[in-house]
C-alpha cells in the first residue's frame, strides 16, 4: 500500500519536473508508472514522508476505526518581487501554487480493485495537470526552479479531511 | 549555439533546440517582461535583442523578423508536437531501432522535456508533418494505428482473447464474422486486429478564443511538457501497453503475435466508407455479459493551445487486449467440453447461438443445450472431419472448431466431424497421452495422474497466460472435487489409486483431455476405461474398452444410475460429452468404479441421443460447476497440451489393457508421480475454503445436471463410434 502512495507521488512529480529527463518507470500492481530517480532528493524525501505516513496508518487514531492519514504535497513558487525595496536584498516569497492532497485509508480490498483505484488516481493526476490547469504552473524561472522542480513541501498528518 | 532565426532545418531542431526548457522559457518570459537577462544561444535571445535594438529604427523589420521567428518557432513546435507524439506512442508499442548521430552516440529526442531515443523508422512516415510551413498550411491529422498482427500464427494455433469473465473466445471466428458483414479496406483483415488508434491533429482554431490561442510560446512549450508527460503516463496505462510488454518479453521465434503500428493521414472519409470500423470489431459477443465496458474507449488529451491551432491528441482504444495464442487442439477440445464459451462469434451474431453461448460461458448450463448449437454440432461432420483428420489432430468432441468455422454449421460440422472421426482417429500420440493420463488418473494409475499434472500445471505454453491463471482457479476445483466428491473418489477406492487427492484434479483434467483424446483413447484403449475399476464387472470393460479411459474418468462423475447401462459405449467423443454432461449430475455422492462410470456414461450417451442438450457445456466431468467449466476447459485443454507433449504419457497409453490393470499399481511411469506432484501443487494455490466451495458447487451442479440433463448431444457420435 505504501507503494501505491509512492507511485502516485512519483507520478505527480513526474508531471511537475521540468527538466529534460528520460522517463523511467517502475511497476506497481502490474501497472507501469513513472518513477523519479533524478533528482535524487525527491525519492529520498518521499521515503521519509512515506514512512511517517505509514506510521500514522499503523496506529489507528482513536476517533475513527479505520486508520487514515493525509499526505499533502505543495508546490511553491519562489517569487522575486520586482521591487527590491529598501531592504536591499531580494525579497523572496514562497507562494503555494498547487496543493495535492492524498488521503489514505486502510481497508481491505482485493488486488484488482487496488489496481483500478491506482489507475483512477493516476488519471486524476493527469487530469489535474493537463489542460487549463497547466496554466497554473507558474513561469519557470531560473531561481525558482531547483533541479527542474519547483520547491515543494510535503506534510503528513493523521486523519482525513484536514 | 545560436539557433538560426530563420526556419531551422527540421533535423536540426531537436538537437539544436535549446532543450532545457527552463532556460528557453526563462529567456522568453523574462525578456518579454523585462530587459533581456541573459545571453543564450536561442532564437529568443536574438529576438529580444533585436527587438530592443530595432525598436528605434527598423521597427517594422524587427517586428517582421520577430514574427518570422515566432512563426518558425511555432512551426517547430507543431512539427515536433506531431513527431514527438508519434515517437512516444510508437516507442511504447513497439521496439524501434535506435538512431545514431555522427559520433555514434544514440540520438535522442529531447523535445518537450521528455528524452526518448530517436529513431529513423518513423522519418519517412512523418514527412507530411515535418514541413516547415505547418503553420500556414496545416497538415491533415496524423493517425497512428496500433494493430495486432496475427498473420504468423501457425495452422495449429489460434488467437484467442479472454473477456472480462475469463472466457476465451476465438478471435479468428469473430473476425471472419465481421469481415463477412462488412468490407474492409486493409488487406488481410482476418489477421489484423486494430487495438488502438491515435490521432494527432491540429484542431479547429475557431473553437477557442484568440486570447487562449495566443499564448506565449514558452508557455505553450511548458504546457506541452506537461501534456507529453501525461501522454507518456497514459500510454502505459492502456491495455495495449501490457500486451506490448508481454509480447516483447518472449522471443519472436516463440511468439507469433506481433504488435505493429502504421502511420498515415487520417482522411475524413477513410472510416466512413467502412461499414464497420476495424477498431470497433467486437471480438466476442458483448451482450452476453453485463458489461459496462464498451468495446473501445476514447480518451482525449487536453489540447495544447498555440497560435496556429489547438494541438490535440486523442486515442480510441480497445478495452480488452488480453490476447493469447492457444493451441488449436486445445481450443477444440475445450470447446468440445463446452467449458469454453468458444462458440464462434458468428454464432453469436447469427443470434441462434446467443442463448447457447450464454449458457456456455456465462451461467452454469442447466442442462439446456441450445438446439441450434446442437444442430450445428451435429451437422456437417464430414467437412470438419476432413479438416481434423487432415491435421491429424485429435478431434475435440464438440467445441466449435477453433477459428475454422465461424458459422454454426461449421461448428456443427466440426463437432460432427470430431465425433465421426473418433472411430477413425488414431490417437495422436500427443492426444493419447493425455487421455491415457486421464484414464490412469481415473483408475488411480500413476500415469494418468502424471498426465494430468502437466496439464494441471498450466497447459500449453501458448495458453499458459490465460489458462495458467485459470488453472489456479480451476485446478483447485479439480482437486477439491477429488477430495470432496465422492464419485471422484470412487475410482480411487476401487482402483486403489495411490493418490486420491490427485485423482480428482486429474480426473477433471483427464476428463477434459479425454474430450480431445477420446477418439484415440477410445479406439485404442477400450479397455482403459475399464482398467480403473479392476473390480468392475467384466461386461462393462468390454464395451468401454473401445473408448479412452478418460471416459472412464468421466463416468465417475456421471450419474450413478448410469453404471448399469451400456458400458460398452466406449469413449466416443460424443459419449464423452454426454458422459460429461450426465456425469455431472450423476456422480454426486456415488462411489463408482471406473467401470461403473463407463457404464453410466454409456447409458447416458444412449439416453442423450434423443435430445441434444447442451452439447459442449457439460463435457466437464460431473461435479464441476459450469462456472468452473471454463476453468476446467482451460485446464483440460492445457492438460491435453501438456499431456500430448509429454512422451511419458504416450508410453503409458499404449497398452490400454495393461494400463487398466496397472492402474492400481501405477507402475507405468514416473509421470503419475509427477502428475501427483502437480496436483498438490495446484491445490496449494487454492485456499481450502475455495476448494470446499468448489466442491459444493460441483455437487450442486451435479444435481442440477442430473435433473436437467436429458440430452446427449452426441448421440450421433455414439452411433458413429459403434460403427
TrEMBL record, chain A:
What's in the keyword line of the UniProt record? Autophagy
List GO BP terms, alphabetically.
Answer: autophagosome assembly
**A single Gene Ontology CC term:** phagophore assembly site
Q: Is Transmembrane set as a keyword in this record? A: no
Under InterPro entries, the record lists: ATG101
Q: Name one GO molecular function term.
A: protein kinase binding
Q: Name one Pfam family in it.
A: ATG101
- Name the family the entry cites: Belongs to the ATG101 family.
What's the protein called, per UniProt? Autophagy-related protein 101
Organism this protein belongs to: Cryoendolithus antarcticus
TrEMBL record, chain B:
By its UniProt entry, which InterPro entries does this protein fall under? ATG13 (IPR040182), Atg13_N (IPR018731), HORMA_dom_sf (IPR036570)
Specify whether NAD is a keyword of the entry.
no
Give any Gene Ontology cellular component: phagophore assembly site
* Polar residues bias: start-end ranges: 427-436, 508-524, 615-626
Q: Which Pfam family, an example, fits this chain?
A: ATG13
Q: Which residues form the Autophagy-related protein 13 N-terminal domain?
A: 78-323
Keyword hit for NADP: no
What Gene Ontology terms for biological process does this UniProt record contain? Answer: mitophagy; piecemeal microautophagy of the nucleus; protein localization to phagophore assembly site
Q: Specify the superkingdom.
A: Eukaryota
Region described as Disordered: 1-71, 348-367, 374-411, 427-595, 607-723
User: Composition bias, kind Basic and acidic residues: at what positions?
Assistant: 26-35, 58-71, 692-706
Entry keyword set: Autophagy
Q: Where is the composition biased (Low complexity)?
A: 9-22, 484-507, 526-539, 561-573, 635-648
Entry similarity comment: Belongs to the ATG13 family. Fungi subfamily.
PANTHER family per UniProt: AUTOPHAGY-RELATED PROTEIN 13 (PTHR13430:SF4), PTHR13430
Query: This protein is called what?
Result: Autophagy-related protein 13
Amino acid at each position: 500500500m505504501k507503494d501505491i502512495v509512492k507511485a502516485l507521488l512519483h507520478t505527480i512529480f513526474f508531471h511537475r519536473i521540468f527538466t529534460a529527463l528520460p522517463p523511467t518507470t517502475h511497476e506497481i500492481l502490474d501497472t507501469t508508472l513513472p518513477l523519479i530517480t533524478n533528482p535524487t532528493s525527491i525519492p529520498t524525501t518521499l521515503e521519509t514522508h512515506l514512512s511517517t505516513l505509514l506510521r500514522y496508518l499503523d496506529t489507528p487514531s482513536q476517533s475513527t476505526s479505520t486508520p487514515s492519514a493525509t499526505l499533502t504535497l505543495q508546490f511553491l513558487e519562489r517569487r522575486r518581487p520586482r521591487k527590491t525595496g529598501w531592504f536591499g536584498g531580494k525579497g523572496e516569497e514562497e507562494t503555494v501554487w498547487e496543493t495535492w492532497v492524498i488521503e489514505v485509508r486502510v481497508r481491505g480490498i482485493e488486488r484488482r480493485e487496488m489496481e483500478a483505484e491506482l489507475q483512477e488516481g493516476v488519471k486524476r493526476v493527469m487530469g489535474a495537470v493537463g489542460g487549463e490547469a497547466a496554466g497554473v504552473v507558474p513561469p519557470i524561472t531560473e531561481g525558482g526552479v531547483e533541479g527542474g522542480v519547483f520547491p515543494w513541501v510535503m506534510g503528513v498528518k493523521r486523519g482525513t479531511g484536514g | 549555439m545560436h539557433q538560426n532565426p530563420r526556419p531551422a532545418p527540421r533535423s536540426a531542431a531537436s538537437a539544436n533546440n535549446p532543450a532545457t526548457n527552463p532556460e528557453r522559457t526563462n529567456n522568453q518570459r523574462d525578456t518579454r517582461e523585462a530587459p533581456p537577462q541573459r545571453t543564450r544561444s536561442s532564437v529568443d535571445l536574438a529576438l529580444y535583442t533585436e527587438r530592443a535594438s530595432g525598436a528605434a529604427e527598423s521597427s517594422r523589420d524587427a517586428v517582421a523578423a520577430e514574427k518570422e521567428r515566432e512563426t518558425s518557432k511555432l512551426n517547430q513546435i507543431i512539427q515536433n508536437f506531431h513527431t514527438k507524439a508519434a515517437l512516444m506512442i510508437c516507442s511504447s508499442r513497439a521496439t524501434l531501432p535506435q538512431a545514431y548521430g555522427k559520433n555514434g552516440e544514440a540520438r535522442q529526442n529531447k523535445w518537450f522535456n521528455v528524452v526518448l531515443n530517436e529513431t529513423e523508422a518513423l522519418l519517412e512516415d512523418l514527412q507530411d508533418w515535418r514541413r516547415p510551413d505547418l503553420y500556414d498550411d496545416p497538415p491533415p491529422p496524423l493517425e497512428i494505428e496500433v494493430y495486432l498482427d496475427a498473420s504468423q500464427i501457425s495452422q495449429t494455433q489460434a488467437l484467442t482473447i479472454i473477456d472480462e469473465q475469463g472466457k476465451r473466445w476465438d478471435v479468428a471466428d469473430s473476425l471472419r464474422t465481421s469481415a463477412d458483414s462488412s468490407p474492409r479496406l486493409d488487406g488481410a483483415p482476418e489477421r489484423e486486429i486494430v487495438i488502438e488508434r491515435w490521432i494527432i491533429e491540429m484542431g479547429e482554431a475557431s473553437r477557442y478564443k484568440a486570447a487562449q490561442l495566443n499564448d506565449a510560446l514558452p508557455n505553450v512549450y511548458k504546457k506541452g511538457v506537461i501534456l507529453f508527460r501525461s501522454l507518456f503516463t497514459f500510454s502505459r496505462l492502456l491495455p495495449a501497453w501490457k500486451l506490448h510488454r508481454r509480447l516483447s518479453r518472449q522471443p519472436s521465434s516463440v511468439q507469433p503475435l506481433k504488435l505493429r503500428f502504421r502511420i498515415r493521414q487520417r482522411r475524413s472519409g477513410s472510416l466512413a466508407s467502412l461499414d464497420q470500423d476495424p477498431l470497433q470489431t467486437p471480438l466476442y459477443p458483448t451482450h452476453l455479459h453485463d458489461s459496462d465496458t464498451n468495446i473501445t474507449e476514447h480518451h482525449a488529451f487536453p489540447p495544447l493551445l498555440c497560435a496556429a491551432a489547438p494541438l490535440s491528441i486523442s486515442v480510441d482504444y480497445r478495452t480488452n487486449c488480453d490476447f493469447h495464442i492457444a493451441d488449436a487442439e486445445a481450443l477444440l477440445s475445450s470447446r468440445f467440453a463446452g467449458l469454453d464459451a468458444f462458440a464462434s462469434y458468428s454464432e453469436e451474431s447469427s443470434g441462434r447461438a446467443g442463448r447457447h453461448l450464454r449458457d456456455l460461458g456465462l451461467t452454469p448450463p442447466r442442462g439446456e443445450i441450445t438446439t441450434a448449437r446442437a444442430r450445428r454440432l451435429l451437422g456437417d461432420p464430414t467437412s470438419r472431419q476432413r479438416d481434423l483428420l487432415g491435421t491429424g489432430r485429435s478431434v475435440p468432441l464438440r467445441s466449435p472448431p477453433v477459428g475454422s468455422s465461424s458459422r454454426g454449421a461449421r461448428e456443427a460440422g466440426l463437432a460432427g466431424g470430431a465425433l465421426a472421426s473418433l472411430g477413425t482417429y488414431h490417437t495422436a500420440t500427443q492426444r493419447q497421452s493425455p487421455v491415457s493420463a486421464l484414464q490412469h488418473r481415473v483408475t488411480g494409475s500413476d500415469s494418468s495422474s502424471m498426465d494430468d499434472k502437466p496439464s494441471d500445471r498450466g497447459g500449453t505454453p501458448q495458453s499458459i497466460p490465460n489458462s495458467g491463471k485459470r488453472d489456479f482457479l480451476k485446478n483447485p476445483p479439480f482437486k477439491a472435487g477429488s477430495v470432496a466428491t465422492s464419485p471422484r473418489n470412487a475410482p480411487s477406492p476401487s482402483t486403489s489409486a495411490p493418490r486420491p487427492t490427485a485423482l480428482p484434479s486429474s480426473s477433471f483434467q483427464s476428463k477434459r483431455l479425454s474430450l480431445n483424446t477420446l477418439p484415440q483413447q477410445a479406439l485404442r484403449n477400450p479397455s482403459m476405461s475399464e482398467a480403473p475399476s479392476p473390480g468392475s464387472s467384466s461386461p462393462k470393460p468390454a464395451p468401454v474398452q473401445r473408448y479412452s479411459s478418460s471416459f472412464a474418468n468421466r463416468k465417475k462423475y456421471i450419474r450413478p444410475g448410469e453404471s448399469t447401462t451400456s458400458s460398452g459405449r466406449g469413449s466416443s467423443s460424443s459419449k464423452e460429452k454426454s458422459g460429461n454432461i450426465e456425469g455431472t449430475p450423476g456422480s454426486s455422492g456415488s462411489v463408482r468404479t471406473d467401470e461403473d462410470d463407463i457404464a453410466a456414461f454409456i447409458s447416458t450417451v444412449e439416453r442423450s441421443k434423443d435430445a441434444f442438450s447442451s452439447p459442449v457445456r457439460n463435457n466437464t466431468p460431473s461435479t464441476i460447476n459450469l462456472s468452473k467449466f471454463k476453468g476446467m476447459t482451460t485446464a483440460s485443454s492445457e492438460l491435453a497440451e501438456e499431456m500430448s507433449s509429454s512422451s511419458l504419457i504416450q508410453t503409458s497409453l499404449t497398452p490400454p489393457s495393461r494400463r487398466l490393470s496397472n492402474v492400481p499399481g501405477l507402475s507405468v511411469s514416473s509421470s503419475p508421480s509427477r502428475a501427483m506432484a502437480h496436483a498438490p501443487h495446484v491445490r496449494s494455490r487454492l485456499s481450502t475454503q475455495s476448494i470446499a466451495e468448489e466442491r459444493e458447487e460441483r455437487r450442486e451442479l451435479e444435481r442440477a445436471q442430473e435433473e436437467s440433463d436429458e440430452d446427449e448431444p452426441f448421440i450421433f457420435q455414439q452411433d458413429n463410434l459403434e460403427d
